[in-house]
Design goal:
Largest sheet: none
Helix content: over 70%
Strand content: under 5%
Number of helices: 19
Length: 459
């Protein structure tokens, strides 16, 4: 076994004694390093459901169903930021691990500029196709008008939403995860305060909820721009760059798993909504929306860990520190298993109270939602491994395997099962589709991890 090597870079973090990418990670140090990312994603999930909470309780069931019906479109539009962030941080962190800090900053700058320009172009297309997509999703009458109203006010914030997604990953590579958490909290508080004011007090309804979200996304995207453009104590700074076409293309390929995951999840959600409208009408869409909101909160823990640990894996991969890669992989597997058991138990125990927060005003809808959440919770036993597994291969700059895991988990497995299970089991088939999907994806992820263990030496 080769000796343990801990490469170093000259940087202010060595003076301030903060945790660095080049450190050896014990459980306490690993948890401390990823905790800001976990908290960031948890807070993002909390303020991400605020719109739904206020709309459901202050505006009504039909507008709430409309929000759940049209929102997948915005996940598709915002996926560019996830792709550039996850694919780009793997390259930038690996470049830092190789000791090429100036080149890493030029890569970083190009990715930021490209994301914003792409975001503006995608937003323009969003305005063009908003109503046709809403019709395609099955919206009509009042629900169609609600979809278009909500979307029209949400679209202007999309370029900044993409930047926010991008910077969530790069704050970790810059060794400033706590600053990333601060930005997320600032954006989240903006959303929650404005939701309470515009929906709860001024009663602007759907436009108020969408406007609150749009403004909060601007906060989340603009604050990091000011930080990275100014002199700072991080590893990264926004500045001049050149066009690195090959790097940009590789970023897109490497981050394609996250792009695919977000797009596929949105497509599947649309397919779910078709089935839900067919089986249970608006109540089915509303119940599924609540389960998704709550599942985002639990999944945020897994996603936060994956985002927080990915730069560590990329850095040590670039530095060829196989001993530390094995250490990170082993500890991550144990943490994913432990968290999966705890979160499954919590989700089952809290299914009723959490459902009541959203739809406590309707007994039949509450019962439908609580039952769905209880069944869906079993998927958490497997989803942590799948999320980390996909992130692992992205961090290792193997976007093909990462994309394969995401493609199967987000599109193929649920796409096939949603056509079978609901026909046999009704609404319970909807929830069991998610559980079976993650179980099958776990088998695929485990196979890829075992098959590639000698190539990357993380086991």
């Amino acid at each position: 076994m080769p000796p343990v090597i801990y490469p170093t870079l000259e940087r202010p973090s060595q003076i301030t004694m903060q945790i660095s990418l080049s450190d050896h990670f014990t459980y306490p140090k690993l948890i401390r390093f990823v905790m800001p990312s976990i908290l960031m994603m948890i807070f993002t999930s909390i303020y991400g459901v605020v719109d739904g909470l206020f709309v459901s309780n202050f505006v009504g069931k039909t507008p709430f169903a409309a929000v759940n019906l049209i929102f997948p479109l915005f996940i598709v539009l915002g996926a560019l930021g996830f792709m550039m962030g996850t694919g780009g941080t793997a390259i930038v962190a690996k470049t830092l691990g190789e000791g090429k800090r100036e080149l890493a900053n030029r890569y970083f700058s190009l990715l930021v500029y490209a994301t914003f320009i792409g975001g503006v172009a995608i937003t323009i297309l969003g305005f063009v196709f908003l109503r046709p997509v809403a019709v395609l999703l099955g919206a009509e009458g009042e629900m169609l008008d609600n979809c278009v109203t909500y979307g029209s006010f949400l679209l202007p914030g999309m370029p900044f939403f993409m930047l926010q997604n991008l910077f969530q990953s790069f704050f970790i590579t810059a060794e400033k995860p706590k600053l990333g958490l601060f930005v997320t909290v600032a954006a989240g508080c903006t959303n929650m305060v404005l939701d309470a004011l515009l929906v709860g007090v001024i009663s602007l309804g759907l436009p108020g909820a969408a406007l609150a979200t749009s403004i909060s996304q601007m906060v989340g995207g603009v604050l990091p721009l000011f930080y990275f453009a100014a002199k700072n104590t991080s590893l990264l700074r926004l500045g001049r760059t050149s066009f690195y076409g090959r790097m940009l293309a590789f970023t897109c390929v490497n981050g394609s798993s996250e792009l695919m995951s977000n797009i596929a999840a949105s497509v599947i959600t649309m397919l779910y909504n078709f089935k839900l409208l067919e089986i249970a009408g608006e109540d089915g869409v509303a119940a599924y929306g609540v389960v998704m909101y709550v599942s985002f909160f639990f999944a945020a823990i897994f996603i936060g860990y994956a985002i927080g640990s990915a730069p560590l894996i990329s850095y040590n991969y670039g530095a060829q520190n196989q001993a530390e890669m094995k250490n990170l992989f082993r500890k991550s597997g144990i943490l994913m298993a432990s968290l999966g058991i705890v979160m499954t138990a919590l989700a089952i125990l809290l299914a009723g109270p959490l459902s009541a927060i959203f739809v406590g005003y309707n007994d039949s809808l509450l019962a439908l939602t609580a039952n769905g959440m209880t069944i869906y919770a079993v998927s958490f036993l497997f989803s942590g491994f799948n999320i980390f597994g996909s992130s692992l291969f992205t961090a290792l700059n193997n976007g093909q395997i990462s994309a394969a895991i995401s493609f199967l988990r987000s599109l193929i497995f649920p796409g096939v099962l949603i056509m079978i299970f609901p026909a046999l089991l009704g609404m319970n088939g909807i929830w069991l589709t998610a559980v079976t999907t993650d179980a099958l994806a776990f088998a695929v992820t485990a196979a890829f991890v075992i098959f590639n263990r000698k190539r990357y030496r993380y086991m």
